[in-house]
């Protein structure tokens, strides 16, 4: 790891000011950033910690939505969101291991947008709004491909507003080594219709499954999508699965998520 | 009932107290005054010509003491290979030089090019980034068959090809084997891969070199399974330091699994650099570095064929294996696919004719050497997969086909056609035991339950034989070993009766400090807590060939028994003097010497005190003191065997396999500490199941490691291996060592992979997927699903 300066502001304004310098970077749980710094793949001059900012933390019901601060850990979401939004809490509870869940945060996960990460499926699958220090970004506009998002330089996520679903579930098929999602599907049923988002499978990152959404909006049952076929086109090929396998898993995991939704 | 701490007792491991309370002392815990740190700049290409190294900028960076390149090692030798294989034409293998730092060429990703020594580790790393290396990238050879093709790029320009050797065993059997295949009623064949593995012990490798100009003494602290072997190889072949000027210490070591047997370049580097810089030099491998610098394991590609007669008796077996050596020959690499693999191809069976061909191949990959089981898992996997396939093709019960061809209990000692003589065994007994513990009779009922839940259930069987404690030295010498394979022990009885035992068998997870003490406690009849087992330091143990091949108790333990017997003999003479009786009349029981048939006695500490305070002592006949050394060179290998059963459930939608039950019924001969044996089997099973389902060290066509971290290299986790039923009540004691023990360290890793794969094939066949005759390990969900679709 190269040397760096470390600042820990207590407000968003101070954080934004600290991030104005060229080589400054926010750090939240550090579960992605620190390993990459240790491997010398990333060498920010200043790390601006977001974990000392009270307003970035917590799980807060707000009408039909659940607002979660960007610096809220996965473990906190798993515990505090359980009674409000069980499908979302269960997803958070399946991320990594206890150490990762007690450090890693929602904002860090979304800013990073790993194509195999879990949260992007929930955010896109609920049509959540990503709230930053400057604006609100709709989930459909936020994810722009592997490790790419709509965030500008120096912009930080402050919270995410999740519309609470009538029923939802996340079905994750584990990549055997990392235990990220080899393919994960988040399904959420709303009065206005059903949303389905898939992570882990595509070279373009998280995506929505329009065909399944249409069928499930008519009939929210696994049978309604028994014939669901997903194209292997632009699916990820790696040691752990071929594009065809991932395309197949999209169908299996979508049906399992629907069956598990509550 | 065994005594509390004697042979047969499940004494808790005394070493665990320090390990579990954070008081273990590992090599990385050793920090010497004035210590500096080395970072190795490693190749990021698999094959390339070094056209220039510019370290000027790096040398000027903060804290940098020196940047070393191969030019600094012109007087040093290469890293030696400890085994020379002779090929089937009578020629010795091709043996390339393995320099400490790359000379002229880099040959695998991770090959060290330069080494930066600096005041801190981070400064060394910073400076390494400033070294400019001009490398002309060359085409890499990764696939073994491609490496042997005409015109393939050569890993070593000075060799005639990438073929290390082409070995045939037994060459004289070849024609008879061919004839047997021609007249066979059935021939079954199978092509398979034994997947490359990375050992990944919990503790990565570390080396600290120290030099003391006062007496021109060198010390190397290192994470080794056999410090004496390192002293011999490094001292004699690499750095030209005689034994009396070189001390090698392997303190607590956090697992090895084979990967810490070998002498590595980093050890020689730290020892040498400490002298050049007159300061201790430390290297601590990162996990990422371990993936590209620790020797890998397995990596065989095999075609195996079995001939049977009309009654399903095995009549001949023939194999052709390509064994990956990687870019250089690691210490014991040439012996693994040959003498530790070919000699086991009879398995548990009476197959009368066997021919094994092995082509060892150089590729632009990390060197490959022994990994838990070493050669024997590769042999067992082939045989037990093939026998299972034969049963399926012939439509007979795989258990019955095995039993029909087993060497029977009354046929021992049994001379196999592949040189070795099995001393004892009872394969039907272990098979019976396993089936009983597995509740095999009710398998189909359980299968129906699974089916009701949409899952496929399968039961897989494997029966293994292994050869432990490779010996005797004069034989292995004929086979090409450049070392003996005995073990030594010194037993030092102190004046007040406590005992210090020095053994050449290093312990790095095996629990020697507990089980070896149990042996001595049993023999003398004293409290095991008065016995200390010392290992891992060349300065206090006469010699040591180390720990591998499940040899510690069978060979190292036997040396301790021999030395302890010498102690007892002498102590009896002292007791005889004290009791005014003849030595022949002295009996030792429960730590007390008595004269047979009388009530005259003297206790252990009375005798030991007399030995060191020899006021009333037969000084004219006997030296004072009570310390003895013994070397033990076994007359044969030991042959543990066992039956393994694996019951799985397979999710047909995803291809994921869950192991529901795993039963191991082993015959390890006599057992000293059942709890430790169980732990050894558990660990072996976890690694074998890891190989079967999860672990896969994969390179791409350019020689880049695809599984270079735990993000892609899948280690088994606790929930992958939920529980085992382990039994070692079937005992046929080894006939040629004093304890009648056989060795248990590798069995789990040897017997489990074929049991798991056989279970998966069984599940698929029972569900009608009869087109699937084999799936290569690891059986990842993706591979299983693809096989079902095919
Ligand atoms: C062993 C292991 C297993 C894991 N398993 C899973 C898994 O199963 N599923 C899964 O989804 N993830 C998994 N993760 C990733 C984990 O969830 C990380 O916590 C997450 O990806 C990053 O969150 P963080 O808070 O640690 O971010 P950090 O590492 O602190 O930061 C990550 C990136 O986001 C930026 N950033 C952080 N916060 C903000 C913000 N508020 N606004 C803008 N930019 C910001 C940082 O500058 C950095 O570029 C795993 C990680 C590990 C180490």
Question: What would your notes on this structure say?
Answer:
The complex is a heterodimer of chains A (about 260) and B (about 800). By secondary structure, chain A is of the alpha+beta class. Helix content of chain A is about 30%, strand content about 25%. Chain A contains 10 helices and 12 strands. Chain A has helices spanning about 10-20, 35-40, 75-80, 85-95, 100-105, 105-110, 120-125, 140, 210-220, 245-260; strands at about 5, 25, 45-50, 60, 65-70, 130, 135-140, 155-165, 165-175, 180-190, 195-200, 205-210. A 5-stranded antiparallel sheet of chain A has the order 4-5-8-6-7. In chain A, helix 3 (about 75-80) packs antiparallel against helix 4 (about 85-95). Chain B folds into 3 domains: about 15-25 and about 485-630, Aldehyde Oxidoreductase, domain 4 (2-Layer Sandwich); about 30-140 and about 205-285, Aldehyde Oxidoreductase, domain 3; about 295-470 and about 635-790, Aldehyde oxidase/xanthine dehydrogenase, molybdopterin binding domain (Aldehyde Oxidoreductase, domain 4), CATH 3.30.365. In chain B, the strands form 8 sheets. Chain B has a 7-stranded mixed sheet with strand order 3-5-1-13-10-11-12, sandwiched between helices. A 5-stranded mixed sheet of chain B has the order 7-17-16-15-8, sandwiched between helices. Chain B has a 4-stranded mixed sheet with strand order 21-29-30-31, sandwiched between helices. The longest helix of chain B has 28 residues, at about 550-580. Classes of the chains: A alpha+beta (about 260), B alpha+beta (about 800). At the A-B interface, helix 10 of A face helix 3 and helix 19 of B. Bound molecules: flavin-adenine dinucleotide. Flavin-adenine dinucleotide binds near residues 27, 28, 104, 112 and 151 of chain A.
């Amino acid at each position: 790891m190269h040397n760096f300066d470390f600042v820990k502001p207590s407000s968003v304004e101070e954080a934004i000011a600290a991030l104005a310098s060229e080589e400054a970077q926010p750090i939240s749980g550090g579960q992605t950033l620190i390993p990459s710094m240790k491997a010398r793949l990333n060498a920010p001059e200043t790390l601006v910690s977001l974990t000392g900012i009270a307003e970035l933390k917590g799980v807060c019901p707000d009408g039909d939505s659940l607002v979660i601060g960007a610096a809220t850990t996965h473990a906190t979401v798993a515990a505090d969101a359980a009674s409000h939004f069980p499908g979302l809490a269960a997803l958070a509870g399946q991320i990594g291991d206890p150490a990762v869940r007690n450090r890693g945060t929602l904002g860090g996960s979304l800013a990073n947008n790993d194509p195999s990460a879990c949260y992007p499926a929930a955010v896109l699958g609920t049509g959540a709004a990503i709230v930053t220090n400057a604006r609100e970004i709709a989930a459909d506009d936020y994810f722009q491909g592997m490790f790419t998002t709509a965030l500008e330089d120096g912009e930080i996520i402050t919270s995410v507003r999740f519309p609470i679903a009538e029923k939802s579930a996340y079905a994750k098929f584990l990549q055997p080594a990392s235990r990220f999602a080899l393919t994960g599907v988040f399904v959420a049923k709303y009065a206005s219709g059903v949303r389905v988002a898939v992570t882990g499978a595509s070279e373009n990152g998280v995506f929505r499954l329009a065909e399944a959404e249409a069928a499930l909006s008519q009939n929210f049952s696994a049978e309604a999508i028994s014939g669901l076929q997903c194209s292997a086109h632009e699916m990820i090929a790696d040691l752990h699965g071929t594009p065809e396998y991932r395309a197949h898993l999209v169908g299996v995991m979508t049906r399992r998520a629907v069956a598990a939704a509550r | 009932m065994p005594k509390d701490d004697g042979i047969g007792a499940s004494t808790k491991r005394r070493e665990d107290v320090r390990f579990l309370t954070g008081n273990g002392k590992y090599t990385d815990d050793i920090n010497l005054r004035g210590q500096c740190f080395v970072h190795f700049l490693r190749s990021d290409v698999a094959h390339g010509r070094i056209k220039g190294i510019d370290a000027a900028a790096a040398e000027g960076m903060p804290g940098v003491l020196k940047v070393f390149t191969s030019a600094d090692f012109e007087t040093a030798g290469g890293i030696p290979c400890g085994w020379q294989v002779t090929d089937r034409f009578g020629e010795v293998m091709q043996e390339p030089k393995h320099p400490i730092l790359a000379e002229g060429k880099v040959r695998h990703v991770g090959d060290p090019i330069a080494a930066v020594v600096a005041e801190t580790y981070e400064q060394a790393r910073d400076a390494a980034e400033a070294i400019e290396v001009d490398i002309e990238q060359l085409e890499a050879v990764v696939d073994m068959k491609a490496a042997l093709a005409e015109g393939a790029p050569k890993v070593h320009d000075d060799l005639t090809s990438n073929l290390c050797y082409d070995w045939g065993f037994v060459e004289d059997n070849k024609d008879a084997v061919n004839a047997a295949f021609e007249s066979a009623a059935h021939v079954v064949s199978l092509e398979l891969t034994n997947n490359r593995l990375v050992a990944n012990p919990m503790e990565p490798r570390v080396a600290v070199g120290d030099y003391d100009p006062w007496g021109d003494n060198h010390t190397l602290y290192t994470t080794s399974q056999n410090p004496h072997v390192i002293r011999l190889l490094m001292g004699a072949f690499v750095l030209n330091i005689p034994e009396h000027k070189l001390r090698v210490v392997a303190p607590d070591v956090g697992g090895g699994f084979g990967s810490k047997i070998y002498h590595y370049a980093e050890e020689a580097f730290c020892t040498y650099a400490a002298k050049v810089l007159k300061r201790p030099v430390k290297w601590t491998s990162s996990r990422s570095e371990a993936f590209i610098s620790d020797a890998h394991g397995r990596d065989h590609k095999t075609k195996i064929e079995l001939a049977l007669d009309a009654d399903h008796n095995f009549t001949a077996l023939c194999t052709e294996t390509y064994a990956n050596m990687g870019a250089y020959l690691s210490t014991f690499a040439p012996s693994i696919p040959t003498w530790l693999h070919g000699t086991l191809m009879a398995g548990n069976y009476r197959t009368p004719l066997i021919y094994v061909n092995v082509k060892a191949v150089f590729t632009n990959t990390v060197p490959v050497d022994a990994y838990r089981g070493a050669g024997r898992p590769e042999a067992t996997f082939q045989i037990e997969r093939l026998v299972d396939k034969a049963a399926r093709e012939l439509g007979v019960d795989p258990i019955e086909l095995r039993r029909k061809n087993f060497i029977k209990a009354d046929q021992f000692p049994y001379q196999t056609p592949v040189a070795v003589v099995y001393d004892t065994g009872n394969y039907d007994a272990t098979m019976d035991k396993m089936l009983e513990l597995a509740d095999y009779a009710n398998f189909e009922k359980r299968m129906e339950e699974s089916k009701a839940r949409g899952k496929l259930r399968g039961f897989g069987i494997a029966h293994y034989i292994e050869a432990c404690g490779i010996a005797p030295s004069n034989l292995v010498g004929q086979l090409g070993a450049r070392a003996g394979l005995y073990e030594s022990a010194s037993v030092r009885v102190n004046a007040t009766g406590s005992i210090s035992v020095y053994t050449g068998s290093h312990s790095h997870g095996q629990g020697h400090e507990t089980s070896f003490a149990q042996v001595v406690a049993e023999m003398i009849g004293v409290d095991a807590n008065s016995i200390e087992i010392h290992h891992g330091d060349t300065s206090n143990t006469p010699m040591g060939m180390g720990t591998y091949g499940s040899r510690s108790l069978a060979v190292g333990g036997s040396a301790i028994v021999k030395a302890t017997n010498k102690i007892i003999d002498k102590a009896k003479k002292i007791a005889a003097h004290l009791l005014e009786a003849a030595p022949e009349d002295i009996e030792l029981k429960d730590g007390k010497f008595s004269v047979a048939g009388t009530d005259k006695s003297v206790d252990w500490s009375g005798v030991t005190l007399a030995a060191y305070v020899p006021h009333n002592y037969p000084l004219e006949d006997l030296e004072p003191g009570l310390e003895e050394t013994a070397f033990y060179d076994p007359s044969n290998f030991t042959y543990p065997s066992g039956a393994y059963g694996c019951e799985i459930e397979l999710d047909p939608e995803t291809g994921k396999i869950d192991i529901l039950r795993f039963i191991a019924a082993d015959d390890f001969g006599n057992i000293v500490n059942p709890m430790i044996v169980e732990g050894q089997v558990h660990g072996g099973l976890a690694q074998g199941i890891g190989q079967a389902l999860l672990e896969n060290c994969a390179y791409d066509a350019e020689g880049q490691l695809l599984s270079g971290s735990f993000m892609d290299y899948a280690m088994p986790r606790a929930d992958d291996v939920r529980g085992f039923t382990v039994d070692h009540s079937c005992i046929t004691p080894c006939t040629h060592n004093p304890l009648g023990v056989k060795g248990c360290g590798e069995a789990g890793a040897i017997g489990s992979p074929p049991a798991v794969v056989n279970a998966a094939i069984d599940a698929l066949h029972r569900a009608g997927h009869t087109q699937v005759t084999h799936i290569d390990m690891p059986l990842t969900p993706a591979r299983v699903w693809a096989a079902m679709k095919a």
